[in-house]
Amino acid sequence: MSRIIEILNFEEGYKEVPYWDTRNFPTVAGGIRIGPQNAPIKQYQFTVPRPVGDLWKKCLVDAKTADMNCYPVIVAALAQCNDARRDILYSMAYQMGVAGLADFTNTLGMITSGDFAGAAGGMLNSLWARQTPDRALRHAEVMRTGTYDAYRGLI
User: Fold this and answer.
1) Which of 44, 111, 138, 152 is the most exposed place for a label (fewest CB within 10 A)?
2) How far apart are CA 58 and CA 129, in angstroms?
């Protein structure tokens, strides 16, 4: 059973009130962008309770999943994944966009061929891993093992 919303809430953090993300985009509810870069945060006067944010995030993940199905290299990789590994690909698409995930051609190819350890290494040997090292370590471990053990006690 997928745990993608729990993973995203952990990785993105969860705040009910709008905040600026690391690139100065107004954001709410754990990584949901709500406005243009550098927009004054005081323009956003609302809260998003956790159940609403989780449903909103689920809708965004569903849209990402539909977009992922337009990329044969991603579809082939997803076909080889169990729920835990699929959740990692969904999380990567959520964070960097579907096109960004599709750029991981070698890693996706290793997943497609069932080389999950190689795929984990490919994930860690990337700009993405250098930018978000802790997240990348957890994601690579899930990809390697096919379990959620990297999130034990965290989600």
Assistant:
1) 152
2) 25
Place of tokens 């945060």: 41
Report d(CA 34, CA 111) in Å as an integer.
33
> Which pairs count as long-range contacts for 105-114, CB under 8 Å and 24+ apart, including other chains?
105/73, 108/73, 108/74, 108/76, 108/77, 109/73, 109/77, 111/77, 111/80, 111/81, 111/85, 111/143, 112/73, 112/76, 112/77, 112/79, 112/80, 113/80, 114/80
List the domain boundaries for the chain: 4-146
Place of tokens 């729990």: 6
pLDDT in tens, 44-96: 999 999 999 999 999 999 999 999 999 999 999 999 999 999 999 999 999 99
Residue 31 has pLDDT above 90, yes or no: no
Domain at 4-146, CATH class: mainly alpha
Cα–Cα distance between 44 and 115 in angstroms, integer? 45
Say how far apart CA 61 and CA 84 lie, in whole Å: 15
